[in-house]
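wait is this the right file?? whatever heres the structure
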């Protein structure tokens, strides 16, 4: 094993991120004590294994890795959320089965042969597309995040809520989204002069509808048909959804049914009574579209129990609705000092970026935090800065720095630092 320089680079034991370029920092392996002659054959090597299957499922030993805090409002079938279990995941892509869900009136059972996407309003030629017709257009695919504007809203509570990372922050996920650029479809319909917005409607009972500026639509919006290489899952909008890279999840209308081209926003219920941010004077800021720069340490996080004092990997995700993550810093002394984390190889625009730091935990109390900066220069704010000037109870678009406390017995909890 290579000799590692484990001189701290920031307070309370943060080590150089370059340690990840070298092997064996955590030293978790057990020494092989088996006698010469090798390892025993395990029971599962002594009989043929299980057959193939139509659909892959995770190992039964990983059954605890599932969507979290799945809840519907009383008296409804599917008005609520399920959350991505961030603390059990690594890498940047969220498995489709664990992608969070947010439905305002459950998942419609759509027959793809009967479903149509209609483009109308201020266009020369109103058009109607079947799924089959849409799927023949050139598909553009990108790996990008989707985040609900209500994500992390629990962090406005006066006292830190003791819940897992996924329960607190799991309304975010990243997928490879594949679909037809909406600009291609609108060009075909012929947008009339003076048009400035579109109104997107969903085919669910809630009739989710949102106004989106035409500039964004023509820039990079897609009608997504594919998620991680397969057709969308019903809960994520099958057979088609609007996907707006980096913009709040709510505007990414699922089960997309109509696009109306307009010269002004529609001021729908979903963008006035909800998803707008109230300031302390009681004035709502309309349309907070791009999601702010943000990062979360997922491991260790609330509910973890540390092992013995020694070297640990601190890992998490960072993202920004404005572009790429340029930098993530990690602190182990409650923000007193910071050191750059290593970023995984794939640093994509408007995507989750995995970061890792090496930390020598000395076995004493510590507060670990992460702070992201994007390539537009936006720096993730403190919790205090996010809450300043906000109305009481305004919880949308929370992107404050998350702190986890590690106690002297190694228990990890949610704290405000
Ligand atoms: N038609 C429709 N679209 C919708 C919603 C909905 O309830 N109905 N929920 C919105 C919200 S609030 C979010 S955060 C995202 C969630 O997408 P997901 O369920 O695929 O994670 O879809 C958005 N699009
Ligand atoms: Mo949302």
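ok assuming it is, sequence goes like this
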């Amino acid at each position: 094993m290579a000799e590692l320089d484990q001189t701290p680079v920031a307070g309370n034991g943060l080590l150089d991120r370059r340690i990840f370029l070298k092997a064996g920092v955590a030293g978790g392996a057990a020494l092989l004590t088996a006698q010469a002659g090798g390892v025993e054959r395990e029971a599962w090597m002594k009989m043929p294994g299980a057959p193939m299957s139509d659909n892959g499922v995770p190992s039964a030993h990983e059954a605890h890795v599932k969507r979290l805090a799945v809840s519907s409002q009383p008296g409804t079938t599917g008005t609520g959320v399920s959350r991505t279990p961030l603390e059990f995941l690594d890498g940047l892509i969220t498995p489709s089965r664990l992608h969070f869900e947010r439905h305002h009136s459950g998942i419609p059972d759509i027959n793809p042969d009967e479903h149509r996407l209609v483009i109308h309003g201020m266009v020369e030629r109103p058009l109607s597309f079947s799924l089959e017709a849409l799927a023949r257009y050139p598909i553009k695919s990108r790996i990008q995040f989707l985040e609900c504007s209500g994500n992390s809203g629990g962090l406005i509570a006066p006292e830190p809520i003791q819940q897992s990372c996924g329960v607190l922050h799991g309304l975010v996920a990243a997928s490879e989204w594949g679909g037809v650029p909406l600009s291609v479809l609108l060009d075909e319909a012929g947008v009339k002069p003076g048009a400035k917005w579109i109104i997107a409607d969903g085919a669910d009972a809630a009739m989710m509808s949102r106004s989106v500026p035409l500039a964004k639509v023509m820039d990079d919006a897609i009608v997504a048909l594919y998620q991680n290489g397969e057709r969308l899952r019903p809960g994520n909008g099958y057979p088609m959804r609007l996907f707006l890279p980096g913009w709040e999840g709510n505007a990414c209308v699922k089960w997309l049914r109509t696009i109306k081209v307009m010269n002004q926003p529609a001021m729908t219920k979903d963008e006035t009574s909800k998803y707008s941010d109230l300031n302390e004077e009681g004035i709502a800021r309309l349309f907070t579209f791009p999601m702010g720069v943000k990062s979360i340490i997922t491991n260790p996080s609330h509910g973890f129990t540390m092992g013995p004092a020694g070297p640990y990997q601190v890992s998490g995700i960072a993202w920004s609705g404005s572009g790429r993550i340029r930098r993530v810093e990690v602190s182990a002394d409650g923000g007193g000092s910071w050191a750059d984390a290593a970023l995984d190889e794939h640093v994509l625009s408007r995507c989750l970026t995995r970061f890792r730091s090496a930390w020598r935990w000395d076995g004493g109390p510590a507060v670990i935090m992460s702070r992201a900066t994007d390539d537009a220069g936006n720096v993730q704010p403190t919790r205090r800065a996010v809450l300043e000037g906000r109305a009481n109870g305004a919880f949308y678009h929370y992107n404050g720095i998350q702190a986890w406390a590690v106690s002297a017995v190694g228990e990890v909890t949610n704290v405000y630092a």
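Residues 99-104, 146, 148, 202, 204, 206, 208, 235-237, 249-250, 252-255 surround MTE (ligand 1) (CB under 6 Å). so i think its the right one actually
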